[in-house]
Amino acid sequence: MAKVNFNASTNGKPEPGKTMGILSLVGAFLLPPAGLVCGIIGLKQSKEVKKDNPLALAGTIISGVTILISIIVTIIAFSIWGATANKVMQLGEGIMDEAQQSMQQAKDSMAESRRQSQQDADQRQQILEQAQQAIDEANQQIQSTPDTTQQMQDAEAAAQRLLQQMQQ
Question: Could you tell me the residue ranges of all domains in the chain?
């Protein structure tokens, strides 16, 4: 069975930080904070032996840029969300104001309808009282005079007129 060497080397010696450089590059796309940490560790290990580690450098740069972009996108998203929420709240207040105005108009309209209905009822009551008074006067005239045929006809006509007014 062959032995696997995870510390890659070009001349038979292990290159410190190379494994961390590979992990940094992979981590930059999968989990940027982990890629940044691995890249920094890989660069430090390579620096101790005075070797370049382009994989660790690339992983560190890509991880840093990815984290920075994520922060900027998050700030922008929250700003847009806040502005949208504020606009929705303003619209909601406007809708509430319109609803309250509509309710007040409905209340005013109902009060006017009740007032008009009361006036109509009062007018009908006055007409009924006038009709009753005319009937009472007609009955008094009938009882006080012997020749009542013409007077009865006059009283009946007056009562009919009042009843017609009441029906209108």
Answer: 122-167
